[in-house]
Structure formats: C-alpha cells, structure tokens
Amino acid sequence: MAVTLRPRTRPSRRAALVALVLAVLAVHGWMTGELADRLVALQPAQAMPPRIEVAYVRELQLAAPPAVAPVPVAPPAAPPRAKTAVRPASAPEAASLPDHEPEPPSEPVPEPVPAAAPEPAPASSEAAASQAAEPVLATASAPEPAASALPAFEWPVSTRLSYKLVGNWRGEVNGDAQVEWVRAGERYQVHLDVTVGLPIAPLFTRRMSSDGELTAAGLAPKRYDRESKLVFRDRQRATLLFTPDAVTLANGERRERWPGMQDEASQFVQLVWLFTTHPELLRVGNTIEMPLALPRNTYRLIYEVVAEEPVQTHFGSVPAFHLIPRRADLRGGDLRVEIWFAPQLRYLPARIRIEQDADVYVDLVLSRRPELAAP
Predict the structure, then answer these.
(1) What confidence tier does 150 reach under pLDDT thresholds 50, 70, 90?
(2) Higher pLDDT among residues 14 and 56, named by residue
(3) DSSP designation for 108
(4) How far is residue 87's CA from residue 283's CA, in Å, rounded to a whole number?
(5) Which backbone phi and psi does 150 adopt, to 5 degrees?
C-alpha cells in the first residue's frame, strides 16, 4: 500500500502568505477609505476644504527672534471681565477656574512714587527746589523707546514642520507628524497630520485642519475639521463652524464665540503670533489665556509657562519655553497638549506632546529644520 506524504509548508512560504494577506487587507482598507471619501465629497457641508498647495524651497536657520512693534490685542480683556461680573449665570464657571483672567504681563504694577515716601524737610526753600528738580530731569532724560521705531508685524510665509513621533497606545508606537501653516493673501490654513505606524498601513491617522482669515487680532477661524481613522474601524469626522458671534460644535450645539477664540489646530499659530508681537509674555511664571473651541465643548484654557528648557531635536539642541494647560480647565475625554516654543525658530513649536492619560500619549519632536515657501 503506497502512502503519499505531503511536504510541509516552508517558513518562507508562510511568510509570503502572511505578507500577501496583510497586503490584501491594506489595499482593501485603502479602497474602503477612498470610497468613503468620495461619498463624503458628494456632501459639500461635510467635505473638508481643499488644501492650499505650496512649494517649500528653503530651511529656517536658528537666529534671534525678530523685534516687531507690539500689536494691540483687540478687543481688550477688560470688557469680557466686566460682562462676566454682571452675569450671574457665568459666576459658577468663573469660580471653578481660579485666576481665570491672567494679568497682562506687559503692564507691571507701578512702583510707589518716590515723592509719596516721607522725607525730612529741606533746610531752605532753595534746597527743596533743587531736590525736586532732580527726579524730573532724570525721567525726562530716559524716555521709553517709541513703538514706531520697530517694524510692523508681518505674517510669515507658508511653513512646514516635520516631527518624529513616539508614544504609547497598547504598547510603544512610532510614526510621523506634520504641522503646516499656509497663507494666501488674507486667508490661512493650519494642518496637523499624525500617522502612527507604517505609512502604507497605519494603525491610526488623524488630520486636523483650520481654515479662516488673518486679522489685526491674529487668526479668525471660519471652519475646523478633524478626521480620525483607527485600523479596522470606521472613519470618524467632526466639524466646527465659526460665525462672528457663535460657534457650532460637532453635535450641532451653538456656543458663544469669545474674542480671540481658536480651534485645536489654529491655537499653535495664534500663540506664535502672540509671542512674536509680545515676547514679554513668554517668561517662566506667566499665564496666557486661550479661548478654545473643541468638537464637544468650549473653554477658556489657561496655559502656564512652567520652564525654560532645551529640546533635543534631530538636528541639535534648541532653547525653548515649556507651556502646559491647567488640568482643572479640561474635562474628561479631552486631550491635554503641552507645547515647547523656540524663540530662535521664530517661536515655532519644537516639541508637542498630546496626552489622553498617562498610558495613552504621543510625543512629537522636530525631525528637521522648518521648511519655508518662497516669499
């Protein structure tokens, strides 16, 4: 009786079979995503605005930050405080956020006037006149520099920042990220793209895009879109729409639009604008209020400048200031974003850490010098 023995599957064939299955899954996932994007594109209200395309031609080198004339922040902070004081409904919110309104660091508390301090009476009227004349002459001889002597602020050309990503999500993860600032006349776009895993078959991707206008008070978003895709799960989208007096959240709720309100993507560039025009704010111990609209809620987020520390980028060490948001200002499920701003890179973020909790986070560090478009 003859017995036929089947040859065992070789390890190389097993590896080839596994690779084929993974390739099929990747192609299937890509085709499914493409089909979903095409279906969404048929609904203009949900489709994300097309990106403004630019070409990057040079790299930004380390240099001292430019000195520019301070830009008045409009509207001033005083009216919102007065409005909050007369509205009883907002009192609980103000009580839950200690030090809700930061004191402007650019206006230090005036020192006591020397004349108010008790001094011994002069021996004669002539001596009194000579003593009174000295401080007047000293003040007149040291006038404050005129703001008009400094150049006016100009919005930077389109810029692309590339980051290497490390983090933790059910284990160690790696990937890449980009922040892109694009401007065309008075219109701007800010894009933050995060890819976890291999580019051909990522475990997770997220794209955040802000589209709006440039104003005397910085960025004024008109629309914000966030798109997330986790492997083997449906694509998730969220859109915020901004009008002059309100913002519509992803669930359709309308909230008041506070002066200077930003979204998840535009906040980075708004802070760059703020530190360029008011560099005195970027000092350890200072706080900066950032009215922020997220897909599910709005906040008056307070960033604290906690330290001046270098960031070890992939092209060398870069001095930076570390900002963190107060945890009391965030609610459950919201992401916590820490930022390191580098004055020698025109106050651009050299490092960004996005944290859900201690076990789920991604850490982005510049992988190359910022790329600039042609002037």
Answers:
(1) confident
(2) 56
(3) P
(4) 33
(5) -95, 150
* Cα 241-178-370 angle, rounded to 5 deg: 120
**Backbone conformation region of residue 170, classed left if phi is above 0, alpha if psi is from -120 to 50, else beta:** left
**Residue 267: burial class (beta carbons within 10 Å; 0-12, 13-18, 19+):** buried
Average pLDDT of span 147-158: 85
Q: Which amino acid is at 314?
A: H
Other Cβ atoms within 10 Å of 206 Cβ, number: 18
Q: Is the alpha carbon torsion for 85, 88, 90, 92 positive or negative?
A: positive
Written in H, E and C, the secondary structure of 260-297 is CCECCCHHHHHHHHHHHHCHHHCCCCCEEEEEEECCCC
Structurally, the chain folds into a number of domains equal to 1
Mean pLDDT of 226-239: 92
Biggest CA–CA distance in the chain, Å, is 138
pLDDT value of position 72? 77
Helix or strand or coil: residue 17? Answer: helix
pLDDT band at 336; cut points 50, 70, 90: confident
Residue 271 lies in a domain: yes
Q: Which two tokens stand for residue 220?
A: 């004024």
Joined together, the tokens standing for residue 253 give 């709720």
Query: Would you call the peptide bond into 259 cis, given omega within 30 degrees of 0 as the criterion?
Result: no
Angle, vertex CA 302, rays to CA 300 and CA 308, nearest 5:
160
pLDDT tens digits, 81-105: 444 333 333 333 332 333 333 344 4
- Is residue 330 situated within a structural domain? yes
Matching residue, tokens 């403004």 = 52
Is 90 exceeded by the pLDDT of residue 135? Answer: no
- Residues of the domain holding 226: 159-373
- Report d(CA 302, CA 91) in Å as an integer: 18
Beta strands in 34-74 (DSSP E): 56-59
In a domain, residue 37? The reply is no
C-alpha to C-alpha distance for 344 and 62, rounded to whole angstroms: 5
Res 322 pLDDT > 50: yes
Answer yes or no: is 142 within a domain.
Answer: no
The dihedral through the CA atoms of 37, 43, 45, 49 has a sign that is: positive
Measured distance CA(110)–CA(105) in Å, rounded: 12
